[in-house]
Amino acid sequence: MKKEQYDKAQEKLYSDDNVEMNIYKCPNCGGETIFDVAQQKVLCQYCGSRFDINADTTVTEKNIDELLNEAKVWDNVEVYSCETCGARQIISNQDVAHECSFCGTKHIIKTNELPGLKPQGVVPFKMPVENVANLAKNWVKKKFFAPRNFKKSAMPENIHGVYNPVFTFDCETKTSYSGRLGERINTNKSSYIRYFYINGNIDVKYDDFLVQASSNITTTTLNKLSPFSTNDAPVYNEDYLRGFKASTYNKDGKACWKEGQDLMRGDIRKRILQRYRYDTIDFLDAKTAFLKQKYKYVLVPVYVGHHTYRGKLYNFYVNGENGKVTGKTPLSIFKVSLVTILTILLVAGFVYLTCFLD
Ligand SMILES: [Zn+2]
Ligand SMILES: [Zn+2]
Fold first, then answer.
1. Ligand nearest to the CA of 216
2. What 3 state SS string does 286-318 have?
């Protein structure tokens, strides 16, 4: 929240212009404030006052050339590092860091690192933390390969909201390609591969293509939690971070854009191949031009917690907007073996049928 807004909020309450204001403290009582997810306001934990957050503007994309020249840094934050799991987190210098959001230990220490680029936008938490334990429990119940004991005893622990840094990219792509594919032909007498040449053009547009910038949560996990409404994200405002932590990025914008381009190339390749019927690829060359490239650097809301089973820790992650869950569970050796054996029997049976009953 900007200082002027607090001034506005307390116009009726104070006439004293000389009040020293700390933007993290409640202007009415000086108490500690947090971001109230259910009401989307700033809430004082002591006197219960609520304050509006200025969210009139949504974040706009910037040209990719600006990515390297961006020099704005965060204010009022400190970087903490976990001695147990290595997670790096940004914590407002008014909040007290008690434990690691990822592994739950108390061995976290303040570092002298700079937090890097200031985010342009933030997707606020919408799912209240009270709902998270149930979401995680229901998710475990549906995990077929998890041991029965685990499903029965699973107790979500150490649930924390963490803002996770991502780069989103917009661009138009133009690709020309050529290649040689093969199709298997089966006749009564023989089976062979018929090769054919292909070439053509394909245009694909990408909007808010997400690339994970922190190693605290993997790209795979983030994709499983997607989508986040990054297109409607309000401009970064530290009010949304009150009472929450944020992860630092350890891939810079340039590295993320490179990764994004590689992922887009892979996607374009898939789209090209979908145009043909083929069984094998001899080669496929594709040249892609990236046009009108834009980017945003935003924070997306993720709840992190863990289950403990036989002394081991299994992290789960919940999309802080829509409640989607993903994560790791222990595997039941019995269930996995049973399915493997059944699969082998099925394949063996199939091979037997095709070979001997021809
Ligand atoms: Zn207060
Ligand atoms: Zn940790």
1. 2
2. EEEEEEEEEEEEEEEEEEEEEEEECCEEEEEEE
